[in-house]
Amino acid sequence: MDLTYIPEDLSSCPKLGNKSCPPTNRPFQVRVIMYSIMTGAMVITIFGNLVIMISISHFKQLHSPTNFLILSMATTDFLLGFVIMPYSMVRSVESCWYFGEGFCKFHASFDMMLSLTSIFHLCSIAIDRFYAVCYPLHYTTTMTTSMIKRLLAFCWSAPALFSFGLVLSEANVSGMQSYEILVACFNFCALTFNKFWGTILFTTCFFTPGSIMVGIYGKIFIVSKRHARVISSMPETTKEEVKKNLSKKKDRKAAKTLGIVMGVFLACWLPCFLAVLIDPYLDYSTPIIILDLLVWLGYFNSTCNPLIHGFFYPWFRRALKYIVKERHTVLLQKTHSAQGTKTMNSPDLWNSAEVQFCFALINNSCPRNMRSVLSASVMYFVMIGAIVMTILGNLVVIVAITHFKQLHTPTNFLILSMATTDFLLSCVVMPFSMIRSIESCWYFGDLFCKVHSCCDIMLCTTSIFHLCFISVDRYYAVCDPLHYVTKITIPVIELFLLISWSIPIFFAFGLVFSELNIIGAEDFVAAIDCTGLCVLIFNKFWGVMASFIAFFLPGTVMVGIYIHIFTVARKHAKQIGMGSMMKQVGPESKMKASSKKESKATKTLSIVMGVFVLCWLPFFLLTITDPFINFTTPEDLYNIFLWLGYFNSTFNPIIYGMFYPWFRKALRMIVTGMIFRPDSSTLSLFLEHA
């Protein structure tokens, strides 16, 4: 629901210009953060409530009075996320309304309508739960389909008539001269209430139904505890007979969950409705940032509802799995129960003990490794975060080095190419590996499995080849600075890049498509073969060879080069220190001594190399040892080592940000839009002789 802040001094309308909105004074970075958070909330609101709508609409087992009310409330939240929140986001961040006066009134009316519709739904759900728990014998005759239809008609029609009637008649702002001046000056769009309608709205539409809900749920929990005590104290012979006259455990649990939904709703919207009540008596002096926070706290309630359903409703989690895998359209699931055979139009959404398969219609399907919703959610959150950071971080490196001419150096061209490798890994490899690691299934076909495996090997090998050539570049920059510009030329860099990309491509694609890596391990491959499996297996020979060629040989070369570099760098530092003490530093000794900038760059790149070795060493050790222990490494341990290697691509931009001032300055210019200036490519990111 919208609120507005009316400035104290509205006498300068001509200065500000008629129908002109004062611009926001928020920094660009703050606006980016606000847009990110609000967009994330919108996406969760839209897709989370869409899952609830599809689940209850499609699965016949969920066709119950309570769930029809939940379905309607999810529709309310979905509309709020789809129709209201995007425009409110722009207005909150930019402090301006760009969408016209007519749509402003529609937006304000629809916003208030959906907020009131939600609380009316919660009130109706409380009544439904009251009969289910307190009067279970009369529940089916009282809460009929026709009764639910009447409740839904009231929940939608009363808020619609109230909201559109109030806003279009402008009764809510009658007698507010300051509001009329504000609209005349700024064409401002926000929902404001005078003292009378602020009190009416708070009392009638929030406080009264809220008090009713709290009273009903208080009664429900008292009755639930009494029923639970009665059942626990009864002997087994009479317990079943008594249970018929008492509420079901499932109904009591549903009441508890819906009570949490109600509590979250009241906690989210209470501050906003209190502001509606109090602000007119404070002469509308509440700061606009506080009002925006209160409005968005209310909006976030629509984001929280699907998350609450996900945590407390097993049927929601199970239905979500069916929706994601699209199995509900084809699979016939037979279950032996008192109700007979069920189809997937009515799956047993509460029974999760059955074995799950990647492709249920295929006889040779791989079984799925079942994870709890909480662990799967945490894994998705961490991995998606790593993917996003890898994409954006390496994209900044690519844009910065490509755009700014001051960064066009041999070392930076190698860094640019390595950032491209990490960027491709995050776009092409990591998303599919994420799904495979969490779901323990491969849904993308055998051919793409081979392509994915090839790209995975190729990009990892390409990274270490880049690091190896960067160490060669640093060796000449520090140990032989007089000949650096003549030896590390652009053609030499092009040769380095050609080797770094071509050899891994031929090695990876040649090895996987020729299937040399599984010669001698055919029996094991045949034993584990099933539809939905995509793993890269190495026999003993290629496990050792691949690790030696792609990791240990270049890694040893790098470590040796950097040790020599640091030995020379320390010797140069001693020479410079002695020369400055004796005040006899000649041109020759100065040219032999490496510059401070080169030494710092070498230190940073050695950290990059060290992080790479630490991240990938466990995986390559596993590649060597696994064939010798008959491939008995647990799947989860393999995935941990693999993703530890992937995280190296996430760490690289973070290391650049910590140790390279030019990276931070370039990032600032990209985020603030300075990069779009015509002369931005020639701007200085650092002092040439720093």
Automatic annotation (TrEMBL):
<feature type="transmembrane region" description="Helical">
    <location>
        <begin position="413"/>
        <end position="435"/>
    </location>
</feature>
<keyword id="KW-0807">Transducer</keyword>
<dbReference type="InterPro" id="IPR017452">
    <property type="entry name" value="GPCR_Rhodpsn_7TM"/>
</dbReference>
<feature type="transmembrane region" description="Helical">
    <location>
        <begin position="68"/>
        <end position="90"/>
    </location>
</feature>
<feature type="transmembrane region" description="Helical">
    <location>
        <begin position="378"/>
        <end position="401"/>
    </location>
</feature>
<dbReference type="InterPro" id="IPR009132">
    <property type="entry name" value="TAAR_fam"/>
</dbReference>
<dbReference type="GO" id="GO:0007635">
    <property type="term" value="P:chemosensory behavior"/>
</dbReference>
<keyword id="KW-0675">Receptor</keyword>
<dbReference type="Pfam" id="PF00001">
    <property type="entry name" value="7tm_1"/>
</dbReference>
<dbReference type="GO" id="GO:0001662">
    <property type="term" value="P:behavioral fear response"/>
</dbReference>
<keyword id="KW-1133">Transmembrane helix</keyword>
<dbReference type="InterPro" id="IPR050569">
    <property type="entry name" value="TAAR"/>
</dbReference>
<dbReference type="GO" id="GO:0001594">
    <property type="term" value="F:trace-amine receptor activity"/>
</dbReference>
<protein>
    <recommendedName>
        <fullName>G-protein coupled receptors family 1 profile domain-containing protein</fullName>
    </recommendedName>
</protein>
<keyword id="KW-1015">Disulfide bond</keyword>
<feature type="transmembrane region" description="Helical">
    <location>
        <begin position="32"/>
        <end position="56"/>
    </location>
</feature>
<keyword id="KW-0472">Membrane</keyword>
<feature type="transmembrane region" description="Helical">
    <location>
        <begin position="492"/>
        <end position="512"/>
    </location>
</feature>
<keyword id="KW-0812">Transmembrane</keyword>
<feature type="transmembrane region" description="Helical">
    <location>
        <begin position="284"/>
        <end position="308"/>
    </location>
</feature>
<keyword id="KW-0297">G-protein coupled receptor</keyword>
<feature type="transmembrane region" description="Helical">
    <location>
        <begin position="110"/>
        <end position="131"/>
    </location>
</feature>
<feature type="transmembrane region" description="Helical">
    <location>
        <begin position="605"/>
        <end position="625"/>
    </location>
</feature>
<dbReference type="GO" id="GO:1990080">
    <property type="term" value="F:2-phenylethylamine receptor activity"/>
</dbReference>
<keyword id="KW-1003">Cell membrane</keyword>
<dbReference type="InterPro" id="IPR000276">
    <property type="entry name" value="GPCR_Rhodpsn"/>
</dbReference>
<dbReference type="GO" id="GO:0005886">
    <property type="term" value="C:plasma membrane"/>
</dbReference>
<feature type="transmembrane region" description="Helical">
    <location>
        <begin position="151"/>
        <end position="169"/>
    </location>
</feature>
<feature type="domain" description="G-protein coupled receptors family 1 profile">
    <location>
        <begin position="393"/>
        <end position="656"/>
    </location>
</feature>
<feature type="transmembrane region" description="Helical">
    <location>
        <begin position="548"/>
        <end position="569"/>
    </location>
</feature>
<feature type="transmembrane region" description="Helical">
    <location>
        <begin position="637"/>
        <end position="659"/>
    </location>
</feature>
<feature type="transmembrane region" description="Helical">
    <location>
        <begin position="196"/>
        <end position="217"/>
    </location>
</feature>
<comment type="similarity">
    <text>Belongs to the G-protein coupled receptor 1 family.</text>
</comment>
<feature type="transmembrane region" description="Helical">
    <location>
        <begin position="258"/>
        <end position="278"/>
    </location>
</feature>
<feature type="domain" description="G-protein coupled receptors family 1 profile">
    <location>
        <begin position="48"/>
        <end position="309"/>
    </location>
</feature>
<keyword id="KW-0325">Glycoprotein</keyword>
